[in-house]
Amino acid sequence: MRPTINRRALIASGAALIALPSLAKAAPAETRPTLRRLSSGLDRIVAPNVAIETIATGMQWAEGPVWVRDGGYLLFSDPPANIIRRWSRNDGASLFLQPSGTAGLDPALVREAGSNGLALDRQGRLLIANSGGRSIDRLDLRTRTRTVLVDRYQGKRFNSCNDMTLSRTGAIYFTDPPYGFAKGDESPLKEVAQNGVYRWTEGGAAVLVTGALTRPNGLALSPDERRLFVSNSDEKDRRIVAIDLDAAGLPSGAPRTFLDASALSGPGNPDGMKIAADGTMFCSSPGGLWILTPEGERLGLIEHGAPIANCCFGEDGRTLFMTANDRVLRMPLKIDGWRA
After folding, report:
1. Edge-to-edge strands of the sheet including 73-78?
2. Is 231 left (phi over 0), alpha (psi -120 to 50) or beta?
3. What is the mean pLDDT of residues 127-135?
4. Which has more confidence, 122 or 12?
5. 267, 305 Cβ separation under 8 angstroms
6. What does the alpha-carbon distance between residue 226 and residue 336 come to, in Å, rounded to a whole number?
7. 320 near 331, Cβ under 8 Å?
8. Residue 28: exposed, middle, or buried by beta-carbon count in 10 A (0-12, 13-18, 19+)?
9. Global model pTM greater than 0.85
10. Is the pLDDT of residue 74 over 60?
11. Which CATH superfamily is domain 61-273 in?
12. CA–CA dist 85, 76 (Å, integer)
């Protein structure tokens, strides 16, 4: 039997998760984030004297950031608190949506009832990986109307939808580990046998991309959308895999290891990731947030003494926002992360 595992304890690898009384705008000096330069190739991506700013603190576990261009603000999840927060330069951090996932669930069965990964569709609507609701939802940001898009595979409910990425055609790829369950794989709520990676398109049913990963987590598409990268955050199998896709966006081969994270040290496990327009990968793994070339060469590592769960591009596309344990970080880039 697989032991009962707390997701945040697993990914934090011992880092404390403290609910602070309020959202602050500055981090204590002893937790100031730093960038470790591993290759001169990093100079094309980040300025040598770059400053990494802490823009918000006080979350139980910050996750799933997304930049909303129409309005110029950041949204990010706090899954255990069941909250989505909003941040802007003018207003700082504030409450945006509560509950962000599903209210009224039994905490003895559901550990994380809130939202996790967030994204925007091509119409500017917010997509929510609803951990507690075990679904992918869509929220109209103007009317706050919420719709469940998909919550089942072959008639069986998902575990706890975790993260997602969208293709240019509007297809949603998403992961479904059991982290939202209090008892993980042994939960009485678990209906699907696999912890899967799925693909869903409007009007269709969920299609299984792979069920071979024990703890599928963050994911991203390559710029040409012919390859899907997926993190596996299992302590016993820490890696990022690549899955080749055919012209229909479906797998054309088995997952293969892109980054073996088993030998990496430091807090965290493989988790969220984003890939810039030029193929540069920003991915969570032990130690913090790694910056990699499209071929997997390690260029740099952003560290702050605790896990960095996820990231996104924002503002003019040349800003990297990072959800980092109990806070959110911001770092300017020299490259444009956004794709056409």
Report:
1. 63-68, 73-78, 83-88, 92-97
2. beta
3. 98
4. 122
5. yes
6. 21
7. yes
8. exposed
9. yes
10. yes
11. TolB, C-terminal domain (2.120.10.30)
12. 5
Dihedral over Cα of 109, 115, 116, 120: its sign:
positive
DSSP per position, 89-125: TTTEEEEEESSSS-SS--TTTBS--SEEEEEE-TTSP
Q: What is the DSSP letter of 80?
A: G
Tell me the pairing of strands 196-200 and 207-210. antiparallel
Residue ranges covered by each domain of the chain = 61-273
Side chain identity at 227, as an amino acid letter? R
- Which residues does 68 contact at the CB level (< 8 Å), separation at least 6? 74, 75, 120, 124, 126, 141
pLDDT digits (tens, 9 = 90+) for 91-128: 999 999 999 999 999 999 999 999 999 999 999 999 99
* Residue 243 structure tokens: 């899955």
User: Residue 308: how many CA atoms within 13 Å on its side-chain side?
Assistant: 30
Confidence of residue 340 (pLDDT cuts 50, 70, 90): low
- Residue 30 phi/psi, 5-degree rounding, is -70, -15
Quote the tokens at residue 151.
């919550």
Sheet holding 146-150, edge to edge: 115-120, 126-130, 135-139, 146-150
Q: Is cis: bond before 99, omega within 30 of 0?
A: yes
* b/e burial code for range 64-103 (CB count within 10 A of at least 16 → b): bbbbbeeeebbbbbbbbbbbbbbbeeeeebeebbebbbbe
Q: How many other CB atoms sit within 10 Å of the CB of residue 192? A: 21
- Return the residue matching tokens 């945006």: 96
